[in-house]
Amino acid sequence: MRNALPPVLAALGLIVLWQVYASAGPLGDDVLPPPTAVAEAGWSDRGDLARATMPTVVGVLLGFSVSLAVAFVLSVLLDRSRPARRAIMPLLIGSQTLPIIVLAPLMVLWFGLGLTPKILLVTLVTFFPVVVGLLDGYASSDRDTTTLLRTMGAGWWTEFRLLRLPAAMPSFFTGLRISITYAVVAVIFAEYASPTGGLGVYMQAARNSFRPDLVLAAVAVCATLTLALFATTVAVQRAVMPWYADARRRDQ
Questions:
Q1: Is residue 215 part of a domain?
Q2: 86-105, pLDDT tens digit by residue?
Q3: pLDDT band for position 242 (50/70/90)?
Q4: Spatial distance between the Cα atoms of 46 and 7, rounded to a whole number of angstroms
Q5: In three state form, how does the secondary structure of the chain look?
Q6: CATH code at position 215
Q7: Helix axes 115-139, 165-193, angle to 10 degrees
Q8: Which residues contact 136 (CB under 8 A, 6 or more apart)?
Q9: Distance CA 86, CA 77 (A)
Q10: Which pLDDT score is estimated for 66?
């Protein structure tokens, strides 16, 4: 409760300012509807909004699952082979400079409609922070313990399983929290380019109907979904690494 109270109060303060400005400001409700109007419109259209949310959730979960698998395999490959790391890492960095607004229609053009463009776009947008986090974590493993394991005849897999992978968990979850915030955005861009359902299509339809209240209601659903995914990663980290969370609390 102590950690949740400040952001809740900050959010409430922003909502109050938004309500006051939208009610008394120069813009009309048809341009900037107040939060009460957005909530009312979202609740009135909750059926269509819920149906539009499900394809987005499916795209996020499937795309992020593929992203994690790709990131883990790449991290192991790059950690295992320095020549591969020198050759591939610049390409991975370059892949992060590609704008999503350009990639989304290309993914639809190359791979057609449906889930495939969503999965590929989420994977491309979210895998890099996880790879970097894992690589940094592998490099932070204790050198003395590494020497001890090798002296005892441990092979690469034993060293990786017992030392390098556990050492990478804090950095891995840091990269995971960063990546998950981009996953919903990537799916929305894919849905903008691929009219097969989802919150992106819903927002387009609401915009074309000159319904900013419904657009903002869908934006609120996207923000809630992102916060829920972020909180899930924090909960998983605490379940997997309870000692790390305890140490962080003691340090604070």
A1: yes
A2: 888 888 888 788 788 888 88
A3: confident
A4: 26
A5: CCCCHHHHHHHHHHHHHHHHHHHHCCCCCCCCCCHHHHHHHHHHCHHHHHHHHHHHHHHHHHHHHHHHHHHHHHHHHHHHCHHHHHHHHHHHHHHCCCCHHHHHHHHHHHHCCCHHHHHHHHHHHHHHHHHHHHHHHHHCCCHHHHHHHHHCCCCHHHHHHHHHHHHHHHHHHHHHHHHHHHHHHHHHHHHHHCCCCCHHHHHHHHHHCCCHHHHHHHHHHHHHHHHHHHHHHHHHHHHHCHHHHHHHHHHC
A6: 1.10.3720.10
A7: 160
A8: 168, 171
A9: 12
A10: 92
| Residue 229 clears pLDDT 80, i.e. is over it | yes
Q: Which domain does 55 fall in, by range?
A: 34-251
Length of the chain: 252
Planar angle of CA 203, 204, 207, nearest 5 degrees? 85
**Residue 11 belongs to some domain of the structure:** no
- Structure confidence at residue 65 (pLDDT): 92
| Cβ proximity of 193 and 152 under 8 Å | no
Contact 124, 106 (CB under 8 A): no
Look at the chain and report how many structural domains it folds into. Answer: 1
User: 177: closest CA among 219, 232, 214?
Assistant: 232
For tokens 């947008």, the residue is 125
Output the pTM of the full model: 0.82
Residue with tokens 């493993």: 141
In a domain, 26, yes or no: no
